[in-house]
Structure formats: C-alpha cells, structure tokens
Write a structure and sequence with these properties.
The complex is a heterodimer of chains A (about 500) and B (about 425).
Chain A: H1 15-18, H2 36-59, H3 65-78, H4 97-115, H5 119-138, H6 142-151, E1 157-158, H7 161-166, H8 168-174, H9 180-185, E2 188-192, H10 197-201, E3 206-208, E4 211-215, H11 219-246, H12 252-258, H13 280-287, H14 291-303, H15 308-321, H16 325-337, H17 343-357, H18 372-377, H19 390-393, H20 396-405, H21 410-421, H22 425-437, H23 449-460, H24 480-497, H25 499-506
Antiparallel strand pairs in A: 1-2, 2-4, 3-4
Helix pairs in contact in A: 2-3, 2-4, 2-5, 2-24, 4-5, 4-12, 5-11, 12-24, 16-17, 20-21, 21-22
Chain B: H1 11-21, H2 25-33, E1 45-50, E2 56-60, H3 65-75, E3 79-86, E4 103-105, E5 108-113, H4 131-151, E6 157-161, E7 166-171, H5 174-177, H6 181-190, H7 212-232, H8 239-246, E8 265-266, E9 269-270, H9 271-280, H10 286-290, E10 296-297, H11 308-333, H12 360-368, H13 375-382, H14 386-399, H15 404-431
Antiparallel strand pairs in B: 1-2, 1-3, 3-4, 3-10, 5-7, 6-7, 8-9
The chains are: A mainly alpha (about 500), B alpha+beta (about 425).
C-alpha cells in the first residue's frame, strides 16, 4: 500500500479521470506528492467533518430534513464535494469541485492511518464514514447513483422488463410504496439475499431463488454493506502496514495524536485578560462554568484545597477565562490559607506551580487550558480528586443528585443520563448548557470548557466584552497558513503533554 | 410376529446392538463428508454425546468412518448431536491457541417443537402428540420447505422427525453451510410470523400490503384449516375455546364489512387470516437457527426414554398387554418409548405417521427374527475384508427392519446432493476449459 506524503511518481493527465464522480469508494489510494501542510490541513478538516457527522447524528434523526440541512452546511463550510458536476461553475476565489474531491480522497486515506490502530478507533471511523457515505449517496440524483454503481463494478443485474412484468404483483406487495407504474419505471436489481439481510429480515423485499429484488431507491443499503466490508478489510490491512509509516518522523506526531486531537480554538490567547474580577467568580461558577469547573470550584471553596490534577484543570481554565497571573496567585492563596496551608507554605510550595501554569517558570511553556477530550481521556480522578469530567467520571446516581441540586428538570436529567449512557459526554454537557441557559439549541458543538464559558457569556450578554472570533471556533479557515499554527502548536504541545496518551493508543 | 420369549430390554442392551448392526454409518459418513470437496470437513466436525446417567460430552471428533463406528460402539451414546465444522479438530481444541479455534460452517437448521403450540392446541400438551395435532407439523413442513426452496433457492433439505414431538430441517446446500450468524438470523426472522409469548394474546398482526411469502403460507394453512381446526381441534366446540378465538378480535367485529372474498378486513387488517395463522403457522425457535456452533440432534439418533420409572411401568404393562393383546397392542402402547430420529419423505408427507416410526426395541426385535432366505450368502461374504463384510451385513440387517424405508429416503437425499455436486464440477471445469 502506498502512502501520501512519500516521494511518489506524479500522475499527470489521468487526474481528471480519477475524480470524475463526486462520490467514491476509496478503493485506490492517492498517488501524488503533497506538502506536510496540506497533509495536516486535510486531515484536520476531515476529522472536523466526521465529528460533525457524529454530533449531528446524535442530535437529529438520521436522514431527516434537519439532519440533511445541518450536514449540508458543514459540508460547504469545510469545502468538501457535494453533488455538482466536475467543471461546474468555478466559484471565484473558492475551491473548485475538483480540488474538493481531491481533498476528500486524500483526507480519507490519511485518517485511515490514524484510525486503524485499535478496534474502538476502527469502529468509530467506519461508523462515521458510513453515515457520511449514506448521506452523500442519498443526495445523488438517480442517474448519478446508477453511474456510481457501474463505475464501481457492483455487479448487480437489473431485472429485465419481461421478468418485472411477470412478477409485477409480487413486487408491488413486497415493497412499501410501490405501485404498478413505479414497478414498470424503476430499475430493480437482483441481489443475492446474503447482501440484503436487513431487507430480508424485515420481509421488505421480494425473494426468488435466493435473490432479493431491490428497487432502485433501496440500493443504498446494499451499497453501504459493501462499503462497510471493504473499509473494514482495508483498515485491517492498513494496521498491518502501519509501522512503516510511523517510522517517518514527519508524520508520526500528527498521526498518533489525530485520533484524540482537539481541533478548535486553544484559548491560550488571552482576549479577556484582566476583565474578570475575583469577586465575580462565585457567581460565574453557577451561571457560566461547565459542570466540571463548577464542581472544582465548589470543592475548592469547601475544602480550601485541591490536588494537583484539580489545580491544573481548574487553574488553566481560569487563565483561559481571563485571570491574570497576579489574580490567580491571589485567588489560590486566599483559598488555601483558609485551609491548612499558611501563607509562607503557599508561597513555597504552590505559588511555583501557579506561575508554571502561566509560563513563568521552568521551560516557560504557556500551557493551554485542557480541552474536553483531554479532561475526559486522561488522568481519571481517584479518591479525593475533584477533577475530570463529571459526565464521564461520576457515578450516574451521584451525577443525578448533583443535577437535581442544581435545579435541572427531571426530564432534562433523564436526557442527560441517556447521553451519558451512550458515552456522549460532551453532548451531555451541551445538554446541561441548554437546560441551564433555557435554550433549545446550544448553537455550538462543545469540545472545550472555555468554549462553554465563552458561549455562556455571549448568551447572557455578560459584562465581558468578548470579541466574537466566530471564524476561530470549529470552522476551518480558508487560509491554510493560519490553520497550521494552532494545529502545529497543538500537536507539538500535545506531543509533550500527552506522553501518557501514547500508551493509550499502543495497546490493542 | 414377535416370539413369546422376546423380552424388551432396556437401552443399555439395545443401543450396542443398534450401533453394531443397524446404524447406517456409511451413509452418515457420506453425508457429512460432502463429497470430500473441502479438506478435513468430516475431521473438523463436532459431535456431542449424551451417555448413560446423563453424562454429556462435547467436542468429539473423528478422523475416519471406522473411528466413528468404533467410538460410538464403545461409548454407546444415548443421544447424538451434530455441531459445526471447526477450524481445527474439535477433540484437540484445547491445544489450539486461544481465539483461533472457531466454528466455520454448519448446515442451516430449523427446529419445530410441538410444545410451542400449547396455547393453540386442545388435544395434547407438553411432550404429548397425537394424530390430531400432528397436522401442525405437516403444515409447518409444507410452508417452510416451499419458502426455503422457492424464496431462498436452497435445494438440499433433509426433514427429520425428532423422535418425540417435533421435526428438524437440515439445509445442506454449500451456500447454506457458509451462512453467517447474521444471515441465519435474517432467514429465521423472514420465516417468523408468530410474535409474542405468554403475555401476548394477539400474536399475528398483518397489514397491507401482504407479502407474497405470507400469501403462499396462507394458502397452505387454508387447505388444512377447516379439517384441522374446526373438526379435529374443535376450536369452536366449547365456550372456553370460542372465547379464546374471540379474544383475538376487536370488540366491534360484528359491524365489520365482509368483502367480496369473504375475508374480514377493516382498515388494512385481516382478522380471519390472522386467526388462521395464529392457530396453524409454524413456530420456530430463532436461536436454534442463528448460531453457527449450535448443536442439534442427529438423524438416526434415538430419543432416549425419560427414565427408569417409565421403563419399569412400560415393561410390566408390555408383558401384560402382550399376553392379552398380542403384538399390535404392545406397539400401540409403546408410542412414548425411544423412537429413532428418521428422515421424512416429503412425497409421502400426508400419510406420515409419527407413531409408525420404529422404536429401537422394535427394530432390535425385528433383527432377531430368523432370516429365511439369506443364510447361504453369509459364508461366501464372510471371506471378504472384515470391514466390508461388516458393512454388507449391516446393510442386510437394517433392510430387514422397519428402518429400511427411512434409510432409503436418506439415500435418495444423498444421491441428489452427489448429482448436483457433479453438475457443479462439470460446470466449473467447462468454464476453465478443462476437457
């Protein structure tokens, strides 16, 4: 198998044939050179797309109108190919359809490298790619669907007109929504029943001599099964060839961290520095803090102490919402002093680590506040810890009690617990946002505690002038150069900070 | 005619005789080898035995027909189950690296058990069956056989009477043996119409449009319904049973329009059809069909007696009855003892009588009868190779018993498979231009 980014022969004119359909099965890996920048950009953008597919799929009924609308929007903003013909109107200054298809192709293969390593990753990747494929296939015109099948050698014979006529009554009664006219007009495909199990199981198709007679519009189910099988096999093969790729140091950091990469704003740029006063924190914790930070703040106030994990998570968050170093020092000292720590001990032992967080000590890295991914995946809390993600780390019963204490409605609590059961922790937190702010739709896809804070303040019209950097959150930027900085910084930092996560991905 | 000295022995005595002289080993081996097309197909097949005192042993496997015979004659299983063809020899499964020992193929099987119909039959319950409710099995076989052949395109189906209260179907096509768990479960669900357990009153719900499969099944049920349900089961014969029928109908049924075909239909629902199906449509256990590694009772296995108590009672009764009523009376009274699990000839399905299926005691007893015309041949044949002689003797032996006609059904089944394999190989070699 050949991997992008390596020195390979450039293919010339046949490139046009390669992308003559907006949808593909990703059977052939790309065979060209691309820059590392493009490599990263493509990968990150597709990852964003797949995460949106996942989130939208949980929030809306798949393939309903709203689902389609939301996905359409994501598609356009991330510049992935939709259903237009190649060579259609070139949008001035935008990406051409050809370039979009190329990106689609290459980004898929890059993500295969990142997601082939464990069973869980493979399963997630296949699920999202399948949903994505189903959505895109569904949006094709009938002609394009047939084109696609032919181009991909799906050797399903169409049923001849005479056969259709002789079986007309049976065909009408076996599939919902067919009439005599549609049976005549539509193509029917003869598919071996083993390839159409869902339709056979529910008796929604006509069976004869081991073949299912599938109407044109149902063919997507069959195609999806085929897609899943192919992708599954391909991922297994990729996993076997992976060591060769991982030895390339240019690719290794990105690939090993892509699967848990946070792909949004990093909140290290202090837009709001100095705009929060310490007196506001208590009030803000109830109104605009995500549950994890509210929990940490409460624990700090009650115990006048937090352990290292809690100090990091909460301390960096506070930095992200705008606390200056001096404010932070004052904040932590005043709290710790109420407990068992006197002022001198604080200055000796704890002040150092606060300054460290702000990049004023040691190797002077200005640490970025933790994303939800990091909070959820790394450093689970043990007895006496208050950090972590309550939706992930708290016992559901305790979580329920806490939500009740915070006056969340019973039906809301149930919705949250359902999401937790499905392991959609960030969506659960988003639901918490929606319930506590009394809105139906949060309007953003939560993946960072500071994002929660920013959005909350925006909604409440809060006293902080937060510059609306709409372009910076979740939307990719048109200019690839800008994109590389946060992702490079992220991957570098990720590499340093998440050493323990490497081992997470090393076991099967 | 049984001689007056004949003493019905119990299973520990009859079974060794059965396995030495009557069990059709060569046909059995021929079946499970499937023409030797796949290497080690027979060797990697799992068998399980239930021995005396209910000892159950799994992962039995054999390398040759001879070994199978010797082991069975040695262990004398009371019951034999057939499992899947595995990736390695089942008898060595512990020596295989964990995770690599896997079930690869098995026939697609169905198990229809009369106890699943207890809520709709009045004549018997639990393990009892009689000629009145046996019709349910006839209906089940007709419906499923048609569907498996016409809808799914399978050709090689072996229907077997389980020996007591039901039937099994073994679908032996190549394609069937290779089916995945998901595919098996999809086939079983396609064939299922009865949904719901104790709690559910109305177990069949039909709505427009009615799938061709349901229509085919209905036409079979309609053929038998009047005679079976109204006459034999007498479902309208008592208030209690009439109430049961009425429970399946909505309360305002009398106001419903009856359409031109005399079917009661309102709002896309077909109550008369639903009732007929609820009373007669086959009830499958999906779990039996789903698993590739599921073990199912083997054809030609016996159905062991239920216990010592029954044996002593029936032994005493037998002696009494035999003295009073002669052989016929005894046979009739023994309908609950160990019958052989025999293949059913679908051409004679309407006249199949489960009570005519031979019991092990009967065929052993038939074996003991003096042979009139075959005495001379023995000396000649005995000089041949011992195994061949053994087989020949066995063939002569079962031919003298009531088992003969059932082995013939099995033979025909095997021949059909052999013919079709040959046809396939010819096709393949033609395609490869191999002449």
């Amino acid at each position: 198998m050949q991997f992008p980014g390596r020195r390979k022969k450039v293919i010339g004119s046949s490139q046009n044939d390669l992308y003559d359909h907006c949808l593909q099965f990703y059977g052939q890996p790309p065979l060209e050179n691309i820059s590392l920048t493009e490599f990263e950009t493509f990968a990150v953008e597709r990852l964003k797309l797949l995460k949106s597919v996942e989130n939208i799929g949980v929030s809306y009924v798949k393939n309903s109108e709203q689902y389609v609308k939301k996905l359409d929007a994501e598609f356009s903003s991330l510049n992935f190919p939709l259903r237009t013909e190649l060579g259609d109107r070139r949008v001035q200054g935008g990406t051409s359809e050809y370039e979009k298809r190329r990106k689609d192709h290459i980004s898929h293969f890059i993500l295969r490298l990142a997601y082939c390593q464990t069973e869980d990753l493979r399963r997630w990747f296949i699920q999202q790619e399948m949903d994505l494929f189903r959505y895109r296939f569904g949006e094709l015109t009938s002609k394009h669907k047939t084109d696609f099948l032919h181009k991909n050698n799906l050797k399903y014979e169409t049923v001849s007109a005479e056969e259709k006529k002789s079986l007309k009554d049976k065909l009408i009664t076996s599939s919902y929504g067919l009439s005599g006219i549609t049976v005549e007009e539509y193509d029917f495909y003869k598919v071996p029943f083993q390839d159409a199990l869902d339709l056979v199981r529910t008796r929604k198709v006509y069976l004869l001599a081991g073949n299912a007679y599938i109407p044109h519009h149902e063919i997507v189910t069959i195609v999806l099964n085929d897609f899943r099988t192919r992708l599954s096999k391909a991922l297994a093969m990729t996993a076997r060839s992976l060591p060769a790729v991982q030895s390339d140091e240019r690719l290794q950091p990105l690939l090993s961290h892509l699967s848990h990469a946070y792909v949004g704003q990093d909140y290290s740029i202090q837009k709001n520095m100095g705009k929060i006063s310490l007196e506001q924190i208590d009030a803000l914790s109830g109104k605009s803090f995500p549950l994890c930070m509210r929990h940490l703040h409460k624990a700090l106030r009650e115990n006048h102490h937090l352990r290292h994990g809690g100090r990091m998570q909460y301390g960096l968050f506070l930095k992200g919402i705008g606390l200056t170093l001096d404010q932070a020092l004052q904040f932590w000292r005043s709290e710790f002093v109420k407990g068992k720590v006197d002022a001198d001990k604080f200055d000796k032992a704890y002040a150092y680590s606060v300054r460290h967080m702000f990049g004023k000590e040691g190797k002077r890295t200005d640490y970025t506040p933790y994303s939800c991914m990091k909070v959820i995946l790394s450093n689970p809390p043990s007895q006496g810890d208050y950090h972590g993600c309550p939706f992930r780390h708290s016992d559901p019963e305790l979580l329920k009690q806490k939500l009740q204490n915070y006056k969340v409605s019973p039906s809301g609590i149930n919705q949250i617990l359902e999401l937790v059961k499905g392991m959609h922790y960030q969506l659960a937190c988003q639901k918490y946002f929606e319930l506590t702010h009394n809105v139906e739709d949060a309007g953003f896809s939560l993946n960072h505690p500071n994002q929660y804070f920013t959005e909350s303040q925006k909604l409440l019209g809060g006293g902080l002038e937060i510059k609306k950097e709409v372009d910076m959150s979740q939307r990719s930027q048109e200019n690839p150069a800008n994109m590389t900085r946060p992702s490079q910084a992220n991957s570098k930092q990720a590499h340093e900070e998440m050493g323990d996560l490497d081992s997470f991905f090393q076991d099967e | 005619m049984p001689t007056s000295d004949y003493d019905p022995a119990c299973l520990p005595d009859l079974l060794p005789l059965y396995y030495r002289r009557l069990f059709p080993f060569s046909q059995y081996y021929r079946w499970l080898s499937y023409g030797g097309v796949s290497k080690n197909y027979f060797q990697n097949r799992e068998f399980s035995f239930t021995l005396k005192d209910d000892i159950y042993v799994r992962y039995q496997s054999f390398t040759t027909q001879n070994e199978l015979e010797k082991e069975m004659q040695k262990m004398v299983p009371y019951k034999i189950d057939i499992g899947a063809v595995y990736s390695h020899r089942p008898s060595q499964h512990n020596a295989v690296k964990s995770g690599t020992f896997q079930a690869l193929e098995k026939e697609l099987v169905f198990d229809i058990d009369m106890t699943d119909y207890d809520d709709v039959r009045r004549c018997c319950s639990a393990a009892d069956i009689c000629s009145k409710c046996w019709t349910l099995m006839t209906i089940a076989i007709r419906i499923l056989d048609r569907a498996l052949r016409e809808d799914f395109g399978f050709h090689h189906l072996l229907w077997v009477y389980s020996g007591r209260r039901g039937v099994h179907c073994w679908v032996c096509d190549d394609a069937a043996r290779k089916l995945s768990v998901a595919a098996r479960s999809a086939v079983a669900e396609y064939l299922s119409l009865i949904k719901g357990g104790e709690e559910t009153v109305r177990k069949v719900v039909l709505s427009d449009p009615i799938h061709p499969f349901i229509n085919h099944s209905l036409s079979v049920v309609e053929r038998y319904f009047c005679q079976y349900a109204i006459v034999e089961q007498d479902i309208l014969g008592s208030k209690e049973s009439v109430d049961k029928v009425l429970a399946l109908l909505p309360e305002d049924i009398l106001s419903f329009p009856v359409n031109a075909n005399y079917s009661i239909k309102k709002g896309g629902q077909y109550f008369d059809k639903e009732i007929m199906l609820q009373y007669c449509y086959p009830r499958l256990d999906v779990n039996v069909s789903k698993g590739v590694n599921h073990l199912l009772k083997s054809p030609f296995s016996i159905h062991p007696k239920t216990g010592e108590k029954e044996y002593y009672q029936s032994n005493l009764l037998y002696t009494l009855l035999f003295k009073r009523l002669g052989a016929v009376g005894c046979l009739f009274f023994f309908f609950s003892s160990s019958r052989i699990s025999v293949p059913i000839d679908l051409k004679e399905l309407n006249t199949f009588d489960p009570f005519e299926v031979p019991t092990i005691s009967l065929i052993c007893e038939e074996l003991e009868r003096p042979r009139a015309d075959e005495a001379e041949d023995d000396d000649v044949k005995d000089k041949e190779n011992e195994q061949e002689a053994g087989e020949r003797r066995r063939i002569r032996d079962y031919k003298r018993t009531s088992l003969a006609k059932y082995v013939k059904v099995f033979d025909r089944f095997l021949e059909a498979m052999a013919r079709s394999r040959k046809g396939e190989m010819l096709q393949k070699s033609d395609l490869q231009k191999d002449f």
